[in-house]
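Notes from hallway chat w/ T.B., transcribed later so I don't forget. T.B. wanted the structure written out for a chain they're using in a teaching module, and asked if we could keep both sequence and structure tokens in one place. Agreed to drop them here.
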Amino acid sequence: MSKYFEELDYRPTPIGALSLRRRREMSLGVDVFEIKLGEEFLMSSLFTTSEIALSHLGLAELNGTNLDVVVGGLGLGYTAEAVLDSTAVGSLVVVDALEAIIEWHETGLLPLGPKLSADARCRFVLGDFFGLAASPDGFDPDQPSRQFDAILVDIDHSPEFFLNPANAAFYRLEGLLRLTDHLRPGGVFGLWSNDLPDASFTARLAEVFAEARAEEVPFHNPLQNATFTQTVYLARKAV
């Protein structure tokens, strides 16, 4: 049996102390990987339904093959893995501002790291997703101004609850308009949220995109034996 608890790494960052932990959840008989920022839990391998749904719902909006995708926020890698599980995807750029998280995947410290690193379609980019979204050069440092078929984001807790107050501009009309520059015609923007759907944010998306909606994603929490609901926002750029 693995150890009951182990801190695998700890790093100071400009937005707080980042730690990677593995613990044994005795009630379920599984190892759980968790990333914390300060005292906040950013992600847990025990709850991944909505992170995976972000990829599935976003890609389901697209037709064709050899799709080019951006994932904003690497985390434990579940959104990226779900993107790469699609044979329609030709390339994936995963943007994360925290060097430690990229290193944890590249060195195999996280379980999905070897799979993501070994896939030739996948590339990690160290950078501020929100800064890159606002830049005309966009997300691919090797191809400035490159456009993508889908941009899928799981970074902040919700469109109103940010890890960094500087991220707020991205969710306003001007920030969303700049994001559309990095999408091909008919391209899809997907956003994960820990909260229930926010009608005002969905309306804001509809001002910028040709189509916009919010999808509720329920999941079972085995620790509390209760169902919780998170949200995936989906928006399509005009053709």
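Follow-up for T.B.: Residues 47-236 form a domain with the Rossmann fold fold (CATH 3.40.50.150). Might be a good example for the class.
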